Amino acid sequence: MTSIETFRELQGEATDWRRYLHENPELDYRLENTARFVAEKLASFGINHIETGIAETGIVALIQGQGGDGPTIGLRADMDALPIVEASNKPWSSKTPGNMHACGHDGHTAMLLGAAKHLAATRDFKGTVALIFQPAEEVELPSGALRMVQEGILDRFGISEVYGMHIAPGIDIGKFGICPGPIMGSQDDFDIVVKGTGGHAASPHRTTDPVVIAAQIILGLQALVSRRTDPLESLVISVTKLRAAQAYNVIPDEVEISGTVRTLGSTLQDFAEREIPSVARGIAQGFGADIEFKYMRSVPATFNNPDNTKVAVTAARNLVGASSVNDAVRVSMGAEDFAYMLQERPGAYIFVGNGRTAECHNPAFDFDDEALPYGIGWWVKLVELILVR
Fold first, then answer.
1. Quick one: which of 28, 94, 19 has its CA closest to 364?
2. CA dist., res. 117 & res. 96, Å (int)
3. What interhelical angle do 372-387 and 306-320 show, nearest 10?
4. Mind listing the pLDDT tens digit for each residue in 284-314?
5. Is residue 389 predicted with pLDDT exceeding 70?
6. Measured between alpha carbons, how far is 340 from 147 in angstroms, rounded to an integer?
7. Which of 101, 174, 259, 386 is found 20 to 30 A from 377 (Cα to Cα)?
8. Do 122 and 267 sit in the same domain of this protein?
9. Are residues 293 and 332 in the same domain?
């Protein structure tokens, strides 16, 4: 069985890969350079079954073990960056203004590449490892995971269970966090158009002011969380966009409100989809206005199968010891499109520590390369546990 020192030997090379990807971020499905880089590295490891062009720029590569027949397990990493101006001030900062790897996907890709190199060299397992390099995790529907599932990768490659990981600022390097059941929230989005009657800002009495109505709606939506749902359940309603007139002296005819809903279960999704327009319309009509409403279900909650979670915990403990693995980590209300793969196959999703860094999606964020051996090692330990038994 391998130790963490084995994976530290890969850290230097994986750091070079990670920093190259960080310097050259690409967005959504437009990952031509990233996908080419990944495919070339996989081929250089002696992996000869590499399928590209899945969901435009996604990749699935297969490593067959030398131990004979066995199941196929999927290991997934996301590859896309975000449209954020970087402020990390690192020597390897983004060379593409306006784009940066602010969520650690450069590190996720490098860790899976490191595991691929080790597994391709040793092949000391039975069955097959399917390496899934996914585009477009950060986009609205259809996201990369959903498209890869829709294009049939789980059936086509015979994947029986699937695993994912994400870097976690706030968890110390060398430590892991996971829990059974929901580990990340669902994401739904909504748009409300408040339809009033505009006019001159000096004569508000001659208007049905949609700005004032929108303000009342925004406040009213918060009462859905604080007064209409069980405080022990998880519901987040956040208004994130507000669009009104472009001039100081104009009251517009319409105001657009947009936001996001996060939950851990479909019951609260149904509640939000039903009650948000009910509250908004009631407030608007009380002022003599009305609304248009659109609700979009984007990503379901990420649900860890309890049995697969135990496997993931054991793999982490085999790498770093029991005291460094929190198997009851606090649930995140962030969303993750890996949920689509977990809807189709049993599996689990784990957090790997990135230390005391800036949060993900922050312009100052950077992946800590000291975390690389732990991610590489967890992938390998997972394979050893599932396919070498």
1. 94
2. 28
3. 120
4. 999 999 999 999 998 999 999 999 999 999 9
5. no
6. 9
7. 101
8. no
9. no
Q: Is residue 267 domain-shared with residue 357, that is, in the same domain? A: no
Could you read off the pLDDT of 358-381 as tens digits, one per residue?
Answer: 999 999 999 999 999 999 999 999
CATH of the domain at 206: 3.30.70.360
Task: Count how many domains the chain has.
Answer: 2
Say which residue, 3 or 386, is predicted with more confidence: 386
Q: 138, 361 in Cβ contact below 8 A?
A: no
Residues 382 and 389: their CA atoms lie apart, in Å, by: 11
pTM over 0.90: yes
Q: Are 367 and 167 in contact (CB under 8 A)?
A: yes
- 150 & 195 share domain: no
Are 281 and 193 in a shared domain?
Answer: yes
Q: Which residue has the tokens 């650690």?
A: 104
- Tally the residues of the chain: 389
Q: Are residues 72 and 160 in the same domain?
A: yes
Interatomic CA distance for residues 18 and 111, integer angstroms: 8
Structure tokens at 62: 């297969």
Segment 103-132 mean pLDDT: 98
| Distance between CA atoms of residues 333 and 233, nearest Å | 12
> What is the widest separation between alpha-carbon atoms in the chain?
81
> HEC profile for the chain?
CCCHHHHHCCHHHHHHHHHHHHHCCCECCCCHHHHHHHHHHHHHCCCCEEEEEECCCEEEEEEECCCCCCCEEEEEEECCEECCCCCCCCCCCCCCCCCECCCCHHHHHHHHHHHHHHHHHHCCCCCEEEEEEECCCCCCCCCHHHHHHHCCHHHHCCEEEEEEEEEECCCCCCCEECCCEEEECCEEEEEEEEECECEECCCHHHCECHHHHHHHHHHHHHHHHHHHCCCCCCEEEEEEEEECCCCCCEECCEEEEEEEEEECCHHHHHHHHHHHHHHHHHHHHHCCCEEEEEEEEEECCEEECHHHHHHHHHHHHHHHCHHHEECCCCCECCCCCCHHHHHHCCEEEEEEECCCCCCCCCCCCCCCHHHHHHHHHHHHHHHHHHHCC
Domain that holds residue 281: 187-299
